Amino acid sequence: MRIEQTSQRRGGIVLACLSAVALGGCANFSEVSAGQDELYQVSATGVSYTMSIPALTAAAREKARDFCGRQQMQADLRQLVRGWRPMQVDLYFRCQPTGVSLQALLD
Q: What's the structural domain count of the chain?
């Protein structure tokens, strides 16, 4: 009896975790594109309406950080545009050398 309850509990935990992942949804990303004034843009679109706008925003930011990280730079997030139909986040960012302050760039 005790083994059966433990097994059911583990099954319930696994099912709850899988459900959370499914409800979290996933995003499709556009290719990072270059714009004017050294700005880059990436779009994240929710695959299902169960993915929240904050989750899409976090996914877009992570994509920007990864893009700049491959260039050994850090992402400087500039503008965020959120849309609801379809659920989409457009993120505009720059890549800056790591450790450079905004004041140093202005001087």
A: 1
